[in-house]
């Protein structure tokens, strides 16, 4: 989300704490996080939540596709996928063909799809709807995010949650504490002979003075940080900064790319033992009012290409196997296509949960395509039920307290 759009979002959402912090007051460096990993390492038994926000309103009907439903085919004569084009999930549903890696996670029971997720009295404004999702307050505007309130209750340590973006999303702003932010930009060291010489400077030498040894250690720490956090992250971020006309389609609601870089950074932090329990990453571009099919499939392919290797990498370590990924968007799209080969703002949509701690499968009822509310899907699962489940099962928190008395949860979603 670009800075102008984010400032507007922060202002309209009413999350004043995040607005005050958006200029970078909570920004931390790799050294802050590496020091925390040494002083207070993440336990291999502590679960970690990674929240992936899809900005713009992802079209759920072309993500988890009811391709065999005649009502779907009739509503979207040019946008609909045919049954032989989707990746079969059973129950008459299939994944978008761009999600081949997630289909593999579905097959091994580590992908859960929560269907028909929304909130009462839906709002089709990007900013208001995203504020509702991030604050978990559908009825009234509140100045704190749901994970920000968890931070307040968890001991007020900002390193407990990290946004891998240059500014802080409202979901991570509490009343007394706000999460830290770590820009996705990696570190880049000299290459060639200069790089070899720089590496040599970080090696200890016998008989050197205290401050010489400290300087060498600092250089070695930088090189270690590049190994953990930088390198490919920096290169990918540079590649994705290049102008690309296709990337601008669907981006009117804000959000950027670099999801692969963000998740690579998160993976390095988890493996290094940084004591962060919640991370926020994002992918934008899902406001597909026109030319939807190609744009959305490209974005879902990017999502798949970032998430799948991240989950596979996390499975290789004890800490990584405690990671749970939650993927959501502020709303789905209208059931019927518009006149521009796209769809307009809608209501309910599917939500993904991924990880070894997740019990894969379908949760929640699939919304009807014929029993609609003003042309929109009727939500069958309250999004706060998912949050309550995550707060209790991943972060070990009192969901009812954080969610203003909401007691709902999704049975069986997480393994005990």
UniProtKB/TrEMBL annotation:
Record-given protein name: DUF1501 domain-containing protein
Lineage start: Bacteria, Bacillati, Actinomycetota, Actinomycetes, Propionibacteriales
Entry annotated with the keyword Signal: yes
UniProt cross-references to InterPro entries, sorted A to Z: DUF1501 (IPR010869), TAT_signal (IPR006311), TAT_signal_bac_arc (IPR019546)
Top-level taxon in the UniProt lineage: Bacteria
Cited NCBIfam families: TAT_signal_seq
Region described as Disordered: 234-257
Annotated signal peptide: 1-22
Pfam families, sorted: DUF1501
Keywords: Signal
């Amino acid at each position: 989300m670009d800075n102008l759009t984010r400032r507007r979002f922060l202002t309209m959402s009413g999350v004043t704490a995040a607005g005050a912090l958006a200029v970078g007051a909570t920004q931390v460096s790799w050294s802050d996080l590496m020091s925390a990993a040494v002083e207070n390492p993440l336990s291999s038994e502590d679960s970690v939540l990674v929240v992936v926000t899809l900005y713009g309103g992802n079209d759920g009907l072309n993500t988890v596709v009811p391709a065999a439903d005649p009502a779907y085919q009739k509503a979207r004569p040019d946008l609909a996928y045919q049954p032989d084009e989707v990746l079969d999930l059973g129950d008459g549903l299939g994944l978008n063909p761009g999600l081949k890696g997630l289909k593999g996670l579905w097959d091994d029971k580590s992908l859960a799809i929560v269907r028909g997720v929304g909130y009462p009295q839906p709002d089709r404004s990007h900013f208001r709807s995203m504020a509702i999702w991030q604050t978990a307050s559908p009825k009234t505007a509140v100045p704190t995010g749901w994970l920000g309130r968890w931070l307040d209750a968890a001991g007020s340590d900002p390193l407990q949650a990290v946004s891998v973006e240059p500014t802080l999303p409202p979901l991570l702003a509490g009343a007394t504490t706000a999460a830290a932010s770590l820009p996705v930009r990696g570190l880049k060291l000299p290459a060639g002979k200069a790089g070899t010489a720089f590496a040599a400077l970080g090696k200890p030498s016998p008989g050197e003075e205290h401050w010489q040894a400290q300087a060498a250690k600092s250089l070695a720490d930088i090189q270690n940080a590049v190994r953990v956090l930088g390198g490919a992250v920096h290169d990918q971020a540079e590649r994705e900064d290049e102008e690309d006309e296709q990337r601008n389609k669907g981006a009117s609601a804000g959000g950027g790319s670099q999801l692969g870089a963000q998740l690579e950074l998160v993976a390095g932090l988890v493996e290094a033992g940084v004591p962060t329990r919640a991370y926020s990453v994002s992918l934008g571009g899902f406001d597909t009012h026109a030319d939807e099919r190609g744009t959305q499939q490209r974005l879902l392919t990017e999502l798949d290409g970032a998430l799948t290797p991240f989950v596979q990498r996390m499975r290789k370590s004890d800490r990584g196997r405690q990671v749970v990924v939650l993927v959501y968007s502020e709303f789905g799209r209208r059931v019927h296509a518009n006149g521009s080969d796209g769809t307009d703002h809608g209501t309910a949509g599917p939500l993904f949960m991924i990880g070894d701690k997740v019990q894969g499968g379908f949760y929640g009822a699939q919304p009807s395509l014929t029993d609609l509310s003003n042309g929109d899907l009727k939500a069958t699962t309250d999004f706060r039920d998912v949050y309550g489940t995550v707060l209790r099962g991943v972060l070990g928190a009192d969901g009812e307290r954080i969610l203003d008395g909401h007691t709902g949860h999704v049975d069986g979603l997480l393994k005990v």
